[in-house]
Amino acid sequence: MATRLTILAIPPVIPLIRDELQMTEAQVGFLVALPVLMFAIAAVPGSLLAARLGSVQHTMGESLLLPAYAAVFLGMTAFRGGRPNILGTAVGVAIIAVLANGLTILNVDPFFQKMVTGAIIIAAVMLRRFGMAAAR
Predict the structure, then answer these.
(1) Cα–Cα 20 to 30 A to 12, which of 40, 59, 75, 103?
(2) Closest-CA residue to 124 (of 66, 67, 82)
(3) ∠ CA 104-106-110 to the nearest 5 degrees?
(4) Tens of pLDDT along 21-51?
(5) Distance CA 46, CA 110 (A)
């Protein structure tokens, strides 16, 4: 019953959004459905991780957040003028994965591994910023 009420509550909002943002109803419908799609896509790796580990905690993916941001920032710096893109993110993931693997093989403390990842994010942002300033 709650699901049906939720679904029925969304359509009265669509004309308001459409008029305010000057969008078609199809575009607004996509805008409303997009978070549901993102949550469904994010549930797949979360379920796989929970199945692999056999338990679930609310902080399980916290250690994956910083490397994910680092990969995207590296990719934005490497390709397409500072805009996020799939190819750049894939290259960023490869760089971060090789770096993390190398630091683990060298027996570096995980605290320092996070510091190195943070330094890479700062370096990528600064490189992009100074690159844009030099291009002007």
Answers:
(1) 40
(2) 82
(3) 40
(4) 677 767 767 777 888 888 899 889 888 888 8
(5) 23
Distances (CA, A) of 91 to 9, 28, 64: 43, 33, 17
Is the pTM higher than 0.70? The answer reads no
Answer whether 103's CB lies under 8 Å from 116's CB: yes
- Tell me what pLDDT residue 107 has: 94
Coil/strand/helix, residue 109? coil
Tokens of 79: 């390709």
Q: Which two tokens stand for residue 115?
A: 């510091």
Taking the C-alpha atoms of residue 113 and residue 120, their distance in angstroms, rounded to an integer, is 11
Closest CA to 63 of 118, 114, 124: 114
Which H or E run includes 54?
none
Nearest to 97 by CA among 62, 61, 64, 52: 64
Taking the alpha carbons at both ends of the chain, their separation in whole angstroms is: 59
For residues 61 and 49, the answer to whether their CB atoms sit within 8 Å is yes
- Count the helix, strand and coil residues of the chain and give each as a percent rounded to the nearest 5: 80, 0, 20
